[in-house]
Amino acid sequence: MQTVxxxxxxxxxxxxxxxxxxxxxxxxxxxxxxFSAELQAGDLSRIPRDAVAQxxxxxxxxxxxxxxxxxxxxxxxxxxxxxxxxAVDLPVCLDSPNPAALAAALKVVxxxxxxxxVNGESDKLAAVLPLVAEYGAAVIALCMDDxxxxxxxxxxxxxxxxILEQAQALGIPPExxxxxxxxxxxxxxxxxxxxxxxxxxxxxxxxxSNMTAGASNASHGMPEREVLNTVFLALLAQAGVNAPxxxxxxxxxxxxxIDLMMGHDEWGGAYIxxxxxLQKREAQSS
Length: 286
Description:
Elements: E1 3-6, E2 11-14, E3 23-27, H1 33-40, H2 46-56, E4 61-64, H3 73-87, E5 92-95, H4 99-106, E6 114-119, H5 122-135, E7 138-142, H6 153-169, E8 177-180, H7 192-206, H8 225-239, E9 245-246, H9 248-261, H10 269-285
Helix pairs in contact: 2-3, 3-4, 4-5, 6-7, 7-8, 8-9, 9-10
């Protein structure tokens, strides 16, 4: 099963036999006070710089989120998308809970976008899936519904199956639904990582769907977070998560190492390229 995304003139394929697609997470004000303040002031100058840096570090899709407090996302998200695609020739992942902002951004996207996100809540499905169908986009689907986040892998799979049924009823093909098995903090529940991995295995086995995940969510509140993030990225990839949302500036080399070890990087070319890029960036910053 292949999910095809497009930039202004490029194509990115997410598939089980393809190299991992890194969705760059940096264009997001969450946890970034300076960026949040800039967005509130209408200053988008950081966005092209972040887009270029992530592309150079190996991201092939860029998440775009302008959801800072008091920001008019309907006005700002389309502008941010245009700036990203002016700076880099990559597909975008439109990250907003606001359907009106998603619709406004979809109108200016060049190529084929990924929408982040929908879940099994009835209101969410009714608001977002018609946009996916209308604009021919792909969508991330979180394995949660009106009852909240299911505690077991089997219950999360059931939510995924229900979302898939709703999507197909609107003519959205299965390959255009990218599932998120949900990553919770292991600091709050030491079994959370295992539940995510078991969910991913079930989705891959039963549905064959492509998957994403915010790997760094697992490490919140723990020391040496990058160690946990790197290990979890490898485990997620083995479970079938092939389009993680991550920080390529920190995780890029690890992701290419995972590809190499899984046989998705002929002669290690992508890994060597990522290593040289990292060396160059470190030399420039020293």
